[in-house]
Design goal:
Length: about 170
Amino acid sequence: MKIKKGFTIIESLVAISILIAAVVGATTAVQSGISSYIFSKDQIIAFYLAQEGFEQIRNIRDENRLNNRNWLAGIAENSGDPCYFGSACTVDPIASSAASRCTSGPGNCPVLKQDATLGFFGYNAAWPATIFKREITLTSINSDEVAVTVTVNWAKGGSSRQFKARENLLNW
């Protein structure tokens, strides 16, 4: 009489458990990598949106200088300007201007929109909305210097994120 040798049920269950643990571990690692990639991509976009905000304010200042206007004209020269001290505003690089004061103060700026073809960000009503909001605030340091703070907010997957940068702008 020959005895058949093979795996017992317990050995089979242990092997299946090890296989399942390996598959779940690999899936979790891939999911974590994709999540990190998406967060990094959004953070890089927020960085560039903040940089664009600084550049637009700087550009308006430089155009004012070239046209012999007050260096803060159209930005924060008087209380009617969009970025007057203590209020938040938006900039629209497509329109090349400080676009508007955010309604109801800081934290209530409109969502940026993006041109699907060229990738430009702005406030064109025909473009689809993004997850990003950008607001710019100016703080007077003295008559020849202001602090420009650009805050980019976005939310994804139930969590809110923020990128904030500050730069001083001089009257030259």
